[in-house]
Specification:
By secondary structure, the protein is of the alpha+beta class. 17% of the residues lie in helices and 32% in strands. The chain contains 6 helices and 22 strands.
Amino acid sequence: MSAETRISNQISDAWRKAHVAPLWESPTAHKEPTGPQAPHLWSWSEVRPLVQMAMDNASPAAVERRVLSLINPRPRSAEDEATQGNLSVAIQSLLPGESARPHRHSMNALRFVLEGSGAETIVNGKHCPMEFGDLVLTPAWCWHEHRHNGTEPMIWLDALDVPLHLFLGTAEFEPGPIKQLPETISDSAFAVPNILPEGANAAAGYSPVFRYPYRDARQAVQAAPVGPDGTRKVRYANPVNGGPAMSLLDSTLMQIDKDTSSRPVRTNCNVVCCVVEGAGRSRVGNQDIDWKEKDIFTVPPGNWVSHQSDTKFARLFMVSDRDALGRLGVLREELGNVRT
């Protein structure tokens, strides 16, 4: 062994003991980009029987929440249980007569109803009925619980920003019983557009309206103008400031009209789509995804994406981290050429 090697080893040992490392030896320092990740589809025809198994074999009284997480088949690490990037999406179910006890956490969560009726989510004391297509918010640190007084199984999609909080080290949880329930304003006080009740808190960081009925969202997206990409989109917004309904999670409803092939778009945000109505297909990168009602699929960052409806129209509910990236100043979006 040469003197130069011995010196090199001594230096390396000194660096290692001091917990420093030369950047030029890092395996990621000059790593070539691998390109966008491929999308993944969870077909409702496959997922629904699995949800039934959970309803037959697990009780919320024992497991807190009866939830099946949708795990990306291409995890970033052995501990990665995200659905797509900063988003965790799951399917939760509640049977008639069941309840899920209250808790709260630092993570934002939303509920998008897929099946059933007669249940409700109670958010900071406000009762939010749950019907097909409704969006119910449970923002960070809001107390929430679920109750089912109906007659049929209730199934909804959960979406949370858990991966982002785990990365930031801000993931916290507090079980019930409920303490210091804040005052809230009835949703009916926000029923008139462009007019707000006195006392609406713009500093809360989330919408004072916790339930967005599907009948309203459907009417809004039907009336929305066709956008540059050829689709109609509406955003679930905070009526106080016009921003996203919840900080760190952005929600939109998109309508694709029949015989329309949207122009491709590309973004660096993470997106998960749930088919609300209709059937069609999406081109995500180099992969075609055929979808129908209640199917769920990912749109990983960096892919060119376009959509087509095979029915009179198709509607997709989309949740993303778009607003979070925008406020950080790192959001990138592009509109491509007309699809042929």
